[in-house]
Please model this.
Amino acid sequence: MDKKGWIGFGISLVLLLAWQIYVEYHYVRQQPAPAESTFSEETSPDQQSSKTPEESQTLGPLESFEKSPDLGKEIISYLENDKIRVSFTSWGGGIQNIELKEHFFRGPNGKENILLNRFDEEPLLNLSGWDAKYNLSGYQSESKEGKVFFRRNLTNGVTLERIFSLSQDYQIMMEQRLINRSSLPITLPKYRINMGLASPIHVKDAVQNMAVNWLTLKGARFGRIGLPDFNAAGFLGLFYWRGPRTVIDSPNEPLRWVAVKNQYFTIVVSPPSSLPPIQVEAVPVELSQFPSEREGQNIKPVGIKAWAYFPEMSIEPNSILSVQFKTYGGPKEYARLKKLGDHIDRVMEYGMWGWVVKPLVWCMVHFHSFIPNYGLDIILFTLLLKGIFWPLQSKANRNMKAMQALSPKLKELQARYKDQPDKMQAEMMKLYREYGVNPVGGCLPMLVQVPIFIGFYTMLQGSVELRNQSFLWIRDLTQPDTIFRIPSVGLDINPLPLIMVGTQILLSRMTPQASENPQLKVFQWMPVFFLFFFYNFASALSLYWTVNNLVTIVQTYRNLKKPVPVLHRVKKQKSPHKISLMK
Model:
């Protein structure tokens, strides 16, 4: 790359890092306010909903969560298999929480199993809208034969029954029955069902990964409302074109499924296709009960909660309307979600880099079946990639040596045409062609590795397989490799990013330069900027890049030991003789 290319690259990188710092400061430290949650007929995700008092009386706001006076005594029931233990409550006739037996986190009290919907005062799949202003109603409860039964009578005479059972691994099935024993049809008004509350595992978890997703029934269009979407919209905290929002609705359209998720886990609810929801509403919720991870820590993170809204329905006389809800509550594993069908794997949000991320995930999982340590798997995978690209890197190194040999001639051109930049560029390109040297050949290996780097970055956004996986001094490959903390300044000491940046600087200084331009030398220290990007990110990415640098250093050293080549002009191919026919 020439000087302008390096300058453009540097400016782009600085802007990227500035954006990362801005997001971290703005979205983590400035928590969204608790929201009011009410229903609107038609609003887009980019509009803040405005509600009328009449609507608020039917479905009250979260902070004034209305409970029926006839709740009765709460009855807790449990169902479990080898993957999950599900707690059900008679208050709301839904799921209190989902305990994941194979996934844990290190909290103030040591290791604890992950609990989905942990901080929600409303049960998952709670139905509201049929009992006037009450959001939570009591059910009769019974457990038998591996099922949990709930039953209650509505004010219009309809009986509502719910039957819960467990399916394979992380799946929960709910059959919902509406029984009309009268001789007249009964119309039930529109209602909502709680899709759950997604909360972070740790206080400092990235809020960008907290989101609500959905998929439309027609066209399979994917939707997303992220936690940062509730904050004021602006540029680097300087210019704002929209204030903060307390509630965001999806477009009014039948939906196939709805999900709430954090970085590594998700709850996906698939309603019946015969009676699909028509809208999703999302709100931020301050987690006041979130435990402090350090003494004196008063930070309370924010989660994201969603409801699905359903249209009114009519039940024929003397009939039973039975529908099935499927709920997945577990890890965001691509292969597992793919098996569920209905494009639920799109919760992973690989986006345009899916073609890189999916093979990376497949390789990591299959390497782990042979070598049960993900740290070693990352090293092995990196060595495999470097072996594949070794010939390309060697060719690039030879090209850089050729550029080094051509450097004196380039200096002559720069001195001769210093006042004629266009002429100088033209003569330089002519010189490259004469000696068969590609001026950007040394950049090619880096460009090829960029998709892999981005793929690793994207994969680590939700790679639950690497959670709690240790390697050397690293306790968790999805977290920074902190070895100790300086309390006086609140600084974590993470050695792996420092080692990575050191190898990157060494590699840049080893690379032959075509000229002694001091402006280019400044960009040899560009890896230092990467320190801010990698320092508090997953140590798995730093491990990959460090091993990649070490192998490249060895290869570059071997190539640099070779003498500078003697350049020869490329022979021009003779053009074929033109033959003319004379009459």
Residues 265 and 332 are 5 Å apart (CA to CA). Residues 1-7, 20-64, 514-519, 578-583 have pLDDT under 50 and may be disordered. The first helix runs from residue 3 to 29. The chain has eleven helices and 24 strands.
